[in-house]
Specification:
- The protein has 241 residues and is an alpha/beta fold.
- The protein has a single domain, classed as Rossmann fold, CATH 3.40.50.1580.
- The chain is built from 6 helices and 14 strands.
- The strands form 3 sheets. Strands 5-13-12-6-14 form a 5-stranded mixed β-barrel, surrounded by 4 helices. It has a two-stranded antiparallel ribbon with strand order 7-8.
- α2 packs parallel to α5.
- The mean pLDDT is 97.
């Protein structure tokens, strides 16, 4: 049976899942320490990738060179744009991932990679520039699990950046460009590598803060990552065994 792989940038974003692993063991993949075991009756691999696109991409590449999973799940916390209507403590599910930094800054404003004309990925006749769709069956199944459990799961585009939006004005501009519901630092890189390997990919995050003038006293990362991990446990328990 194919495993499920779950990745996150930090140990805090995977700690509940690591604690829940039965027959847990550690292994080294791509010079990174990862965990293997049984999660809700399914073989699972849990990997703390480190923060940012480069760490996420290198970790997921190493994993997919060694394993062929049924599904790759990326998780963690995220900041939500005020215009999205989401609040701290919301659960967000990506329908697509967007590279928010990659593009061209011109005298008339920012333009996506399509202005350059070189796709990030070209595969099976498709060209992907800034946007990568997430796997539809996983999105639909997650929505069904949430509905069955009486949970609200907000769906929409996620925006991945190297420089996080630390002001209300910056958040408004990112929302205007992409219409995303939340912002993170790894997801698009994970989605890109998954697309190269033909791996089904899902991304679910807990909202820890609003994208506003930066004030970490208003954030709640522990709640956000706990809610996300608890939902992932529910989701994995519903996968065919």
């Amino acid at each position: 049976m194919k495993p499920v792989i779950v990745t996150a940038a930090t140990n805090q974003e995977l700690s509940l899942l690591i604690a829940a692993l039965d027959n847990r063991s550690r292994l080294l993949v791509g010079r990174r320490e990862m965990y293997e075991g049984m999660l809700e009756g399914r073989r699972a691999l849990l990997a703390v990738t480190g923060i940012g696109k480069a760490n996420a991409a290198s970790s997921v590449t190493a994993l997919l060179e060694h394993f062929v999973p049924e599904l790759l799940i990326n998780t963690g916390c995220a900041g939500t744009y005020a215009e999205s209507g989401l609040k701290v403590g919301a659960l967000a599910l990506a329908t697509e991932e967007v590279f928010g930094d990659e593009g061209v800054a011109t005298p008339d404003g920012w333009h996506s990679l399509e202005l350059i004309g070189i796709p990030v990925v070209a595969k099976n006749g498709e060209k992907y520039f800034n946007r990568f769709p997430l796997t539809r069956w996983a999105v639909d199944k997650a929505a069904h699990v949430a509905q069955a459990g009486g949970l609200t799961l907000h769906q929409g585009a996620f925006v991945t950046v190297s420089t996080v939006s630390g002001s209300a004005g910056c958040g408004t501009e990112m929302f205007r460009r992409f219409g995303g519901i939340c912002e993170n630092m790894e997801g698009a890189a994970v989605a890109q590598v998954a697309s190269l390997y033909g791996t089904d990919c899902m991304e679910l995050r807990g909202v820890s803060n609003l994208v506003e003038d930066r004030d970490i006293s208003r954030w709640n990362i522990p709640m956000a990552v706990e809610l996300a991990q608890k939902f992932i446990l529910q989701f994995i328990s519903t996968l065919c065994r």
